[in-house]
Hints:
This protein is α+β, with helices and mostly antiparallel strands and about 170 residues long. The chain contains three helices and ten strands, in the order ββββββαααββββ. It has helices at about 55-65, 75, 85-95, and strands at about 5-10, 15-20, 25-30, 35, 40-45, 50-55, 100-105, 115-130, 145-160, 170. It has a five-stranded antiparallel β-sheet, with helices on one face.
Amino acid sequence: ETLFLKALVEGKASLYVYTDGILTRYFYTIDGSNAKQLVYKKYTKAGHAREYGINTMYKQQLWENLNYPSLTMNEIENTDYTSRDLMKIVSAYNSANKSENISYKQKTPKSLFNLGLRAGPMFEVASLVSGTSFSQQNQIGPIDFGNKTGIRVAVSFELVLPFDKGKWSIFMDP
């Protein structure tokens, strides 16, 4: 099977990621060798439908293949199967081996919620014209409230939707 991998770190050791929906897999190479998958699997324990186990063989792979003098077993045990933690281990390995270390930082996601402040001039013109009422004695003439000018201040809210690269949003501007 052929997969397209995204480079996260390149150097003597390189780290790559493959994502397909909710599936995320990491791969590594050393000195340009073939990419090897870092093994991480969640599984249901036999006979226990609600109990899950986790195969964290990737930690053993890191210890055996990306070991450098200052790396401790505690650091490996505390390494999660995330881009951030794996990039840290691979970058440290490259630095310890005095190799070029090119890190492709992922973009930080933009805010999904935006808040804006709007200000501007306000012009009001209001009048009330009354017609005849049920009794002719209570007839009210036209009422003029006059013209008023002022400053208007408003807050706008925007919720950016998480599809189509954030090009769609829902907003409210009072």
